[in-house]
Amino acid sequence: MNALRRLYFLAVALFLAAPLLVVAGVSVNEKQDLTFPPRGFSLAWYAQIFTDPEWRAALFHSLTLAVCSAALAVLIALPLAWFLWRRIAPWANVFQVLGLAPFILPPVITALGFLSFWATLGLFGQFFTAIVSHAIFFVTLPLVTLSLGFASIDRSLVEAAATMGADDRTVARTVVLPLILPYLISGYAFAFVLSLNEYIIAYMTIGFTTETLPIKIFNALRYGYTPTMASVSVFFVAVAALVFGSIARFGDIRRLLGALSSEDS
Amino acid sequence: MRREPPRSPADYAPLAFPALMLIVFFVVPFSIMIAVSFFKRDPAGFYKPDFVFDNYARFLSAFFGEVLGFSLMLAVTVAACCIVVAFPFTYLLTKRPRRVQTVWLVGLLSVLSLSEVIIGFAWSTLFSRTAGITNLFVAVGLMSEPVALLPTFGAVLTGMVYQALPYTILVLYPALVRLDPTMTEAARTLGASPMRAFFNVVVPALRNTIVATLIMVFVFALGSYLLPQILGRPRHWTLSVLITDQAIYQSNMPFAAAMAVFLVLISLSLVGLTLLVGRRENAA
């Protein structure tokens, strides 16, 4: 029975890891060929991400987009989650539904909505439109983690502070904020990683004027193969593993996911 | 601090910014898209304001029916494959020590967050002639020479299962991790084998969860827009691919919008169905 379970886990792990292992393999090929096992060994394709002006620009665009849009998503989610926790206002749940909706619907739909919106305004193709679009699309993630964070606050702590004479603002700054900080950081991190990887919305808002890394990979893919795609892919996997690994190291990722997914469904 | 109803307009202040952002940048774009679906196509620009049903009438063509049928069939197949693999896996995972669970969850999240572009590229490499899995088969003597395994339906299906599997496991995880362990213990005490306890106790107890997850994964798979393009032939294109294609390459925004509205209706009715199934489970 135990052996059977091991075999099963191994099969799932292999299925999930196999394509990434092959990509990691071809990324160290010495020549510009798509061969596995790799011939020779070279890290030149990793250096390319930073030295080639086009890849470096795409990396820069992607990072700017992810940093800004995740921050904006948190800025939208934080007051909303706080309000829903602090006040009894059933109709305000409408905004919670609006915050969850873009994430549940197929992404093509949201992307098309943004495309028609920015085109109608005549702002189509400007970089900030992608930041706003990503922030709205990924607002679900900080909203869910923050709602979870607020729900975990022991209300008697807050009450004690209020009895001692602290007003709402002081309570928020000295009691509430430190307690929800881990949830705020995980919400930001989730939005950051997903924004970094997002293709269709970035493509439909700024795809004609600017290349982010996923757009650059897809465009390059259409003209054939360059090993830099492989090295960038490995870079992406590493960033995701690093971010989620840190969340697991410093927080309780099991609890975060136990609630995250049940809120989703 | 107890929750209180807002008393003065100032109490509503925190809501202002999120509400404004969500209305201006989600509700308005969504409404514009619905409006555009009734507009006329303008070959020179994007579209001309109008009120016509032409874009919806195109759904009645045999071509559209084929694409829709294929999209639904593909999404159902992906969802079924994912549940069959993920349900027993997630159940076993929740029985492992916390550390093991954490490592798996980090790995699953990392795969789930990967761009569709990267998943498509990775599988196209694994299925290629020069760097693909068939080289391994040749090395162990199963095949005489390496072949390309794409573009095929199997490649599209594999890529989409790969994309949806971590999602399925993470949707199932909360329900399974909270499952009362005394249920299976009782079955085991009464002499059931672990396998029997799983199929006769765990599966029936979570029947509604399974159905709800199936629908969630189905909607998730409907949204796949790149994998059919990278791993399949044009006849493997789904509704999502077609929407992108019409909007970007054919510059037919009104038709793309009409298809998107249609896709919203399918997804929303299915998500509504999940909520209904979930409610019944809570009531029971």
From TrEMBL, chain A:
<feature type="transmembrane region" description="Helical">
    <location>
        <begin position="97"/>
        <end position="121"/>
    </location>
</feature>
<feature type="transmembrane region" description="Helical">
    <location>
        <begin position="200"/>
        <end position="218"/>
    </location>
</feature>
<feature type="transmembrane region" description="Helical">
    <location>
        <begin position="63"/>
        <end position="85"/>
    </location>
</feature>
<dbReference type="InterPro" id="IPR035906">
    <property type="entry name" value="MetI-like_sf"/>
</dbReference>
<keyword id="KW-0997">Cell inner membrane</keyword>
<feature type="transmembrane region" description="Helical">
    <location>
        <begin position="230"/>
        <end position="251"/>
    </location>
</feature>
<keyword id="KW-1003">Cell membrane</keyword>
<feature type="transmembrane region" description="Helical">
    <location>
        <begin position="174"/>
        <end position="194"/>
    </location>
</feature>
<dbReference type="InterPro" id="IPR000515">
    <property type="entry name" value="MetI-like"/>
</dbReference>
<feature type="transmembrane region" description="Helical">
    <location>
        <begin position="127"/>
        <end position="153"/>
    </location>
</feature>
<protein>
    <submittedName>
        <fullName>ABC transporter permease</fullName>
    </submittedName>
</protein>
<comment type="similarity">
    <text>Belongs to the binding-protein-dependent transport system permease family.</text>
</comment>
<feature type="domain" description="ABC transmembrane type-1">
    <location>
        <begin position="59"/>
        <end position="248"/>
    </location>
</feature>
<keyword id="KW-0813">Transport</keyword>
<keyword id="KW-1133">Transmembrane helix</keyword>
<keyword id="KW-0812">Transmembrane</keyword>
<dbReference type="Pfam" id="PF00528">
    <property type="entry name" value="BPD_transp_1"/>
</dbReference>
<keyword id="KW-0472">Membrane</keyword>
From TrEMBL, chain B:
<feature type="transmembrane region" description="Helical">
    <location>
        <begin position="12"/>
        <end position="39"/>
    </location>
</feature>
<feature type="transmembrane region" description="Helical">
    <location>
        <begin position="197"/>
        <end position="227"/>
    </location>
</feature>
<keyword id="KW-1133">Transmembrane helix</keyword>
<keyword id="KW-0813">Transport</keyword>
<comment type="similarity">
    <text>Belongs to the binding-protein-dependent transport system permease family. CysTW subfamily.</text>
</comment>
<feature type="transmembrane region" description="Helical">
    <location>
        <begin position="104"/>
        <end position="127"/>
    </location>
</feature>
<keyword id="KW-0472">Membrane</keyword>
<keyword id="KW-0812">Transmembrane</keyword>
<feature type="transmembrane region" description="Helical">
    <location>
        <begin position="255"/>
        <end position="278"/>
    </location>
</feature>
<feature type="domain" description="ABC transmembrane type-1">
    <location>
        <begin position="68"/>
        <end position="274"/>
    </location>
</feature>
<feature type="transmembrane region" description="Helical">
    <location>
        <begin position="147"/>
        <end position="176"/>
    </location>
</feature>
<keyword id="KW-1003">Cell membrane</keyword>
<dbReference type="InterPro" id="IPR000515">
    <property type="entry name" value="MetI-like"/>
</dbReference>
<feature type="transmembrane region" description="Helical">
    <location>
        <begin position="59"/>
        <end position="92"/>
    </location>
</feature>
<protein>
    <submittedName>
        <fullName>ABC transporter permease</fullName>
    </submittedName>
</protein>
<dbReference type="InterPro" id="IPR035906">
    <property type="entry name" value="MetI-like_sf"/>
</dbReference>
